[in-house]
Amino acid sequence: MKILVINGPNLNMLGKRDKEIYGGKTLAEIDSLIREQGEALNIEVVTFQSNSEGALIDFIQEQADSASGIIINPGALTHYGFSLRDALADTKLPLIEVHLSNIYAREEWRAQSVIAPIAKGQISGLGWRGYIAALRALVAQLRGEG
């Protein structure tokens, strides 16, 4: 089983930007924790980040046929990334949307997601632990566990 963990614009700046909102861990540290959890679950995890919507779409289209599911933090593309949404929907893969901060407790525009309607679920506000929760939930669902 292979799970794609995709991060959108500005998430490469984690650990440097707005630590009070996004936490102090870098994306590399978070990716490492996700891969460790993948090993514990006996699955392959492939991580990818880009500031370009086109690069995200290319990655999804290249990897989807060999993947079982997707976890995505679309960053700002959450609110307007319609071509990203279409690429995700085209995969027909189960998807969980993750946000480090609670997007519903911030500016009103952040609460609008074009990705959420095609996702199995959304985890918001748990910091880096949201990725771990999403991975566990997605793998359990794919394995038919409760």
Describe this structure as you would to a colleague:
With about 150 residues, the chain is an alpha/beta fold. It has one domain: Rossmann fold (3-Layer(aba) Sandwich). The protein is built from 5 helices and 5 strands; from the N terminus they run βααβαβαββα. Strands 2-1-3-4-5 form a 5-stranded parallel β-sheet, with helices on both faces. The longest helix is centred in the first third of the chain and has 14 residues, at about 25-40. The protein is globular. The protein starts with a strand and ends with a helix. The model has no long low-confidence stretch (mean pLDDT about 95).
In short:
With 146 residues, the protein is of the alpha/beta class. 36% of the residues lie in helices and 18% in strands. It has a single domain (2-142), classed as Rossmann fold (3-Layer(aba) Sandwich), CATH 3.40.50.9100.
The main sheet orders its strands as 2-1-3-4-5
In terms of per-residue confidence, which ranges show pLDDT below 50 for 5 or more consecutive residues?
none
- The CATH architecture can be given as 3-Layer(aba) Sandwich
Rg computed from alpha carbons, rounded to a whole number of angstroms: 14 Å
| Number of E-type strands | 5
Straight-line N-to-C gap: 18 Å
- The CATH H-level homologous superfamily: Dehydroquinase, class II
